[in-house]
Design a protein that fits this description.
The chain has strands at residues 3-7, 10-12, 18-25, 34-39, 46-51, 58-60, 68-73, 78-83, 92-100, 103-106, 110-114. The protein has no helices and 11 strands.
Length: 116
């Protein structure tokens, strides 16, 4: 079965950096677009970034463009999100996502808190 497990969240000061990871299993990882989403308290889950199966292209939400970088290692079935220049408004639970056979799969999420 499809499993996604996020890690790497934590508490960081504004301007700091974090790298999130997502370990994937149960599907042919390199064949699927992978995405990161986030959900802040009291808000709806929102798109952050996505990457092609080959890594050939990426898309970003305007709010993170130029600060976040999505990448993947298909040999390790791993997805990453490098987050730089973090802002307080980046505080949220971050989720790894894949759409397989018309079904969306989510990990359990990892908390990112940006605060001084």
């Amino acid at each position: 079965q499809v499993q996604l497990v996020e890690s790497g969240g934590g508490l960081v000061q504004p301007g700091g950096s974090l790298r999130l990871s997502c370990a994937a299993s149960g599907f042919t990882f390199s064949s699927f677009i992978m995405s990161w989403y986030r959900q802040a308290p009291g808000k709806e889950r929102e798109f952050v970034a996505r990457i092609a199966g080959t890594g050939a292209w990426t898309n970003y939400a305007d709010s993170v463009k130029g600060r976040f970088t999505i990448s993947r290692d298909n040999a390790k079935n791993a997805l990453y999100l490098q987050m730089n220049s973090l802002k307080t408004e980046d505080t949220a639970v971050y989720y790894c996502n894949v759409l397989v056979l018309v079904r969306n799969y989510w990990g359990q999420g990892t908390q990112v808190t940006v605060s001084s």
